[in-house]
Write a structure and sequence with these properties.
Molybdenum cofactor biosynthesis protein C; rod-shaped; MoaC_sf; mainly alpha; 31 residues
């Protein structure tokens, strides 16, 4: 079974990175 806390942290990091990338791409257009 996968460690839920570790997976959650990984997902959170990936999401944050994607958010930063998306923001820099369309300058927070949909925000």
């Amino acid at each position: 079974m996968v460690d839920v806390s570790a997976k959650a942290e990984t997902v959170r990091e990936a999401r944050a990175e994607a958010f930063v990338t998306m923001r820099s791409e369309n300058a927070g257009d949909d925000c």
